[in-house]
Structure formats: C-alpha cells, structure tokens
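Lab notes, practical 5.
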Amino acid sequence: MTRFHSMNSDTPVRGAHHHVMRWLAVAAISLALGGCMAPRPGAGLPPYGDSVRHTKAIQTYEPGDEVPQLHGAKAAEAMRVYRLPAAGGGLAPSAEQ
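Output from the prediction step:
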C-alpha cells in the first residue's frame, strides 16, 4: 500500500492535527494583520472636500476685497509668457498686433 493508504492508526490523527495547526496559523495571522489596522481610519482628517472649498475660498475675491496690484517686472514676465505660442498652436490673439 502507499503511504497515503497505510493502515497505521495514527494517520487520521496526524491529518486532523495538521488541519488544526493550519487553522490556528491562519487565525494568528488574521489577528496580527487586524491589529495593524487603524481603529478609525481617516478620523484625524478634515471632512471630505474641505481642502477644495478652502482653496477656492482663498483664491476668490469678494466685492470690496483689496486686489493686489500687478506692475513692474512681475507684470512684464506674465505678459511675455502669455504671448508665447501655445504648445501646438499659434500666437495669442493679443500678440498679433
């Protein structure tokens, strides 16, 4: 007979022991991985969308807000970059004067 079909009386016990050990190993790994999970994921973060609303609010001028002046070298550089040809297009309409 083969070793799988032997008439040895402790063969079923070995199979059951192997099954129990495998189950215990899986249970232990599952518990260990469960311990790595945060108790409340995202609890320390602001509510979803707050960062977008905040960014829009600080970039939007309301009537009566002071608007910073754009002059000098900063304005000249902004206009120079604006008038450069677009990637794959022609000159900006204001540059064709």
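Observations recorded by the TA: Helices lie at 11-35, 50-59, 73-83. The mean pLDDT is 77.
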